[in-house]
Every structure is written in structure tokens, then in C-alpha cells.
Amino acid sequence: MLPIILDMDPGIDDAAAIAVAVNHPKLDVKLITTVAGNVTVDKTTKNTLKLLDFFDKDIPVAMGAKAPLKKKFVDASAIHGSSGMPGYDFPEPQRKPLSLSAVEAMHQVICESKEKITLIATGSYTNIAQLMEKYPKDLDQVNNLILMGGSISGGNCSSVAEFNVFTDPDAAKIVFDFPIEKTMIGLDVTLKALITPQTLDKIKKMGKSGDMLYSIILAYGDVHVGGKPMHDVNTILYALNPELITTKKLNIEVATKGPAIGATVADIQNRWHKAGTYNANVGIDINAELFNEWFIDQVSKMP
Ligand code: BDR
Ligand code: CA
Fold it and tell me: Most CB contacts within 10 A, which of 28, 34, 58, 132?
């Protein structure tokens, strides 16, 4: 089993990623930490607890940053609804978060683990940046950092910036600059892997989990020609089957001010960095049909 920590802002696509991860026989989710992003951190934490109640999984949850490091917090409730998880009537959560903060809980789990951890971040990277600043040695125990976010081909928040990086560009800069093996699964991948209406029709008939996922995805405001992007789910696919996403080793710089704030600029021509160096494996392609088949297969195995 692959030991993982999820750092997220559920969020409809984060919720779908949680659904896949906590039910997958090859993944051992050690901890879920939450961050402000799609909605406030109180709501992203509540949504995480609701999902763990739904799937009856005793996975510790720790609440993280209420706001970005420097920038003013602006949510994405226009896309994810005011609760962050609309479309399905979840009861109030029975589970409670830990009293530890996200950073302290990650530190504890990483220190206690005998195996190296895969750290997956699908919200803004505020908690991860704080972990790197406070406990840099912990990152020696992380063998891969998988980030949903960024883009080298245009943004979804501005013409150049993707939401997770745009929300906290200062944290993103710390994370991309940190010397650790990392993979950026950004819009270059996730906007290719749209969940089609046919896939939604299939999962709708797949028991209580399929019905729940169908209902929340239906309420998701991120709509493109051909379907809806389940951005964060791609990170779970990559953790399990990295060969299904084509990556390129590139140097990524994060813009932290000015009109390009939140952009992840790739030094494709090696103008600023030596050829052969890189700070990220950048996802550039995925087979959308395979992604849909894989997602349907995951949902079909859920309770
Ligand atoms: C990212 O932004 C959020 O709204 C989604 O949950 C995803 O993590 C896509 O840009
Ligand atoms: Ca997210």
C-alpha cells in the first residue's frame, strides 16, 4: 500500500479525489489536511468530515491555513457553491478534526511513518509551504510531492494563472523552489481529461457512491465543451499510474506580483536555467478516454 497524505480544499473535484483515494485498495490515506481555497477552511474541513462519514473511514483530519501567506483570500464559491459541496444532502458530520494544526499533524505523521510518504496537494499550497519553512527535514521523508495546479498554457483565473497557484502564489513559489522531487499536474493535463456526460450517466447508476458523485459533479460550475474537469482526481491517478500522464522535466518559476501573478512560467528554452536542470515534472498530456474508463472503474468498486 502506498502511504499518502492529502492536503485539500473540498471542493467538488477534491471530494471526488477523496472518494477515489479512501476507497482504493492500494492507497493508505494517513491524514487529510485542509486549507482555505474553494471555500473557507471551516467549510473545506466540514466537507472532508462529511465524506469520511459517508464512506465510514476513520482517517484523521487536521485543519490548516485560513488564508494565503500574503494575498487576500478569495474563494471559488461561484464554481463550487457556497458550501463547497452542493448537490447532495449530506448530514452534519459526526467525526471531528484533530486539535493539531495541519502542519503539526503532517509533521507527526511524517515523523512516525516507517516508509516514505507521497504528499498530494489539491488546494492552494499554504500548508505545504509552512511545513517546508518550519520542518524542512520532514521533506526528506516525502518521496514525491504531487501538486494539482499551475499551467504552462493559460490559466483559469486570469489569462495565465490557475486557481490553486493564484490563490497563494507566495506559497507556490516556496513549494516550487524547494529542492524536492515534485510533479505539477496542472490545467495542461486536467482540461484534457474532461468527465463526459456519458461517464456521468454511467456512474449515476452505480449505487450510493455513484449517485452521490453524480449529484455533486452535476452541481459543479466548471463546465467546458465536452464535459467537466475533475482536476484533483488526476493527482490520484498519477500516484497510482504515473505512466498514464506524460510529463516533461522543466524549471517552473511562480510570478508573485504584477499582471501575471499566479502564473507558473516554464523555462522551456533554458534561457534562465542550465539545460538538463529542472525543479518539476510537469504533466503535459493524458488520454481522456482512458481517464474516463479509469474513473468509472473506480466508482464501480466503491460501496
Ligand atoms: C483547481 O481549483 C479548484 O477550484 C479545484 O478544486 C482544483 O483544485 C483547478 O484550478
Ligand atoms: Ca482543489
Answer: 34
Active site residue 231: yes
Torsional class of 162: left (φ above 0), alpha (ψ -120 to 50), beta (otherwise): beta
Report the candidate in 275, 290, 285 with the shortest Cα–Cα distance to residue 248. 285
What is the tens place of the pLDDT at every residue in 103-128?
999 999 999 999 999 999 999 999 99
Q: Which atom of ligand 1 is nearest to the CA of 190?
A: 9
DSSP code per residue over 110-124: HHH-SS-EEEEE-S-
Give the torsion through C-alpha atoms of 121, 127, 128, 133, to 10 deg. 180
Catalytic residue among 24, 80, 107, 231: 231
Q: What pLDDT shows up at residue 68?
A: 98
Please report which residue ranges of 81-206 form alpha helices under DSSP H.
102-112, 126-134, 163-167, 169-177, 187-190, 197-204
Any ligand 1 atom below 6 A from CB of 164:
yes
Vertex 128: Cα angle to 29 and 142 (nearest 5):
55
Which residue minimizes the CA distance to atom 10 of ligand 1? 163
Nearest to 168 by CA among 128, 135, 110: 128
Q: Beta strand pairing status for 194-195 and 228-229? A: antiparallel
* Spacing, Cα 276 to ligand 2 middle (Å): 31
Q: Is the pTM of this model over 0.80?
A: yes
